[in-house]
Amino acid sequence: MNRVVTVALFLALLLLTPILTAEKCEKEAFFDMMAQAWEEMSQHNTGELARIREIISSFGLKEGETVLDAGCGTGRLIPFLLKEVGRNGRIYALDCSQEMLLIAKQKQYDGNVSFIKADITEMPLPPESMDRIICFRTFAHIDNKTGALREFFRVLKPSGVVVICNLLGSKELNELHKEIGRAVANDISPSAQEMKRLFLGSNFTPLELLDSESLYLMTASKPHN
Ligand SMILES: C[S@@+](CC[C@H](N)C(=O)[O-])C[C@H]1O[C@@H](n2cnc3c(N)ncnc32)[C@H](O)[C@@H]1O
User: Fold this and answer.
1) Is 102 exposed, middle or buried (0-12, 13-18, 19+ CB in 10 A)?
2) What is the best residue among 94, 141, 165 to mutate for testing ligand 1's pocket, by most ligand atoms within 8 Å of CB?
């Protein structure tokens, strides 16, 4: 997505924001507010959708797998994930923003999809229930990263893999968030070294630690029993 357009959109949304409701955490209100615009931007950004399709097809998902889309937003990854796991697979699409989920739920999907409104750090999912977790363009927004990894580890099956991915490197994304300010100003994508430390501290085995200008791809597996 064009950086100038992204920053302009975020700033316009911030200016339009009324005082954020007290019951919601600031982040949840922020993503609720930007859900419609996020969907419109996503639909028009065919280049990014093509990249997402290509990246998802490189994850090595298998027919019949159960996959958690952690921070699913308006559900744009779901069709690509379903294509990989097929009719016998299932996608759990989880997000803390009601408005993002509302848009995601309105779409027609060719396959098994369950929606969950929850925080990634406290997921109402049974232990060892997921083959794979995809956390796309979301990890930077989670304040409690250790808590998120703890939950990812809990819900993954033994040998399951977590994929943390973004289409910007950590330096580029962190600068972008600073530029946007307010709710996302301090949302940090950890460096590869820090991510390795976080994975190891959560008992994961790091697999890939790629942090280039235009691709952030951190994967780790849960050991066998
Ligand atoms: C930048 S959007 C990306 C959405 C989607 N993955 C995509 O690429 O279109 C980040 C999403 O993460 C969600 N999110 C942020 N922090 C979260 C948390 N702690 N728990 C659950 N969802 C969260 C937001 O509500 C938002 O929908």
Assistant:
1) middle
2) 141
Q: How far is CA 85 from the centre of its chain?
A: 18
- With H, G, I as helix, E, B as strand and everything else as coil, classify residue 210: strand
CB 66 within 8 A of CB 130: yes
CATH of the domain at 136: 3.40.50.150
pLDDT along the chain (225 residues), means of 10: 58 48 67 96 94 97 98 98 98 97 97 97 97 98 97 98 98 96 93 98 98 98 92
Answer yes or no: pTM beyond 0.70: yes
Distance of CA 27 to the CA centre of its chain: 14
The whole domain housing 106 covers: 3-221
Mutate to test the pocket of ligand 1, among 6, 31, 38, 115 (most ligand atoms within 8 A of CB): 31
Buried b (16+ CB within 10 A) or exposed e, 46-55: eeebeebeeb
